[in-house]
Design goal:
283 residues; alpha/beta; two-stranded parallel ribbon; binds NADP nicotinamide-adenine-dinucleotide phosphate
Length: 283
């Protein structure tokens, strides 16, 4: 790959942190945190993109507090819906490629098998609706873009299920974990590595939505069981979604098919179990 100029937004998030690592030797990476590029002021992003004139915009910034979004819909829409469209409009003007991340929560979870990119979207939550608006906003521009929908992101830092489990496991002798939502836990490093592999391999990148999750599937309960095979083990009790009410509704089946990513770019992510072992070893 010819060295390129990358503008990375959300540089201190789970995925943003790993993107800094995986793109470190790919060229110049201008990494922006919220202080330098605040997506709740989308219009200010225009000057940033025009000043930097990146070859690639990597947008790892998002409003990711799924439950809080139910009571902050306007802010979530500004960050997840409006800002990605503005980035895409500027990418179209400057010729940059926009790489953006989206979510399994654009689906309602009612399908029996794995979701493919062309399946009908029907988000159940404010967060899902705002992320879908971001996808649609990008697609309505003339920008070259890649939208990677991922799921159940975990890693060694930030807020995620793995870190919550490791903390609660030290505090409580018993954990009650939802067993009727299934998906694929996906490590932030696997996402960053796959993103790098996609950009490295393809000279002419076909714009589109691609699912990008670790292979396999499990429930939150199954994920918790796997986490505690190594760490000190509390008792883990499987419960239903109804027994763990949250402000935002979540899809029952979040499993994404990665076939399109594999066929188009020959890029595959590891199994969620393998990704988990790697992260546990790094903690
Ligand atoms: N986490 C998941 O389970 C999950 C699942 C599916 C898809 N995704 C998608 O994957 C992508 C990366 O998520 P992640 O897990 O890395 O999330 P994350 O760890 O919550 O990181 C999000 C980043 O966005 C930043 N941010 C929030 N509001 C901002 C604003 N107004 N302006 C600029 N930056 C702002 C945060 O900054 P601060 O550090 O200052 O708060 C944080 O660094 C997102 O598009 C997300 O929707 C995530």
């Amino acid at each position: 790959m010819i060295p390129q100029k990358f503008l990375l937004l959300g540089a201190n998030g789970q995925v943003g942190t790993e993107l800094r690592r995986s793109f470190a030797d790919a060229g110049e990476v201008i990494a922006c945190d919220r202080a330098r590029a605040d997506l709740s002021h989308p219009e200010k992003l225009r000057a940033l993109v025009r000043d930097i004139r990146p070859d690639v915009i990597l947008n790892a910034a998002a409003y990711t507090a799924v439950d809080r979004a139910e009571s902050e819909p306007d802010l979530a829409m500004l960050i997840n819906g409006t800002a990605p469209r503005v980035l895409a409009e500027e990418a179209a003007k400057t010729g940059a490629l926009l790489v953006h991340y989206s979510t399994d929560y654009v689906f309602d979870g009612t399908k029996d098998g794995a979701w493919i990119e062309t399946d009908a979207t029907h988000p159940l939550s404010v967060y899902g609706k705002t992320k879908l608006a971001g996808e649609q906003g990008i697609q309505e521009t003339a920008a070259k873009y890649l939208i990677f929908r991922t799921s159940w992101v975990f890693g060694p830092y930030g807020q995620n299920f793995l870190r919550t489990m490791l903390r609660l496991g030290k505090e409580k002798p018993q954990l009650r974990i939802v067993d009727d939502q299934i998906g694929a836990p996906t490590s932030s490093s696997a996402i960053a590595n796959a993103t790098r592999a996609v950009l490295k391999g393809a000279a002419d990148i076909p714009s589109g939505i691609y699912h990008m999750s670790c292979a396999g599937q499990t429930s939150w309960y199954g994920f918790a069981r796997a986490i505690f095979t190594q760490a000190a083990t509390p008792e883990i009790i499987p419960i239903t979604t109804e027994e763990y009410p949250t402000p935002a509704r979540r899809p029952r089946n979040s499993v994404l098919s990665n076939q399109k990513l594999k066929t188009t770019f020959r890029v595959e992510l590891p199994s969620w179990e393998e990704a988990l072992q790697r992260v546990l070893q790094s903690i």
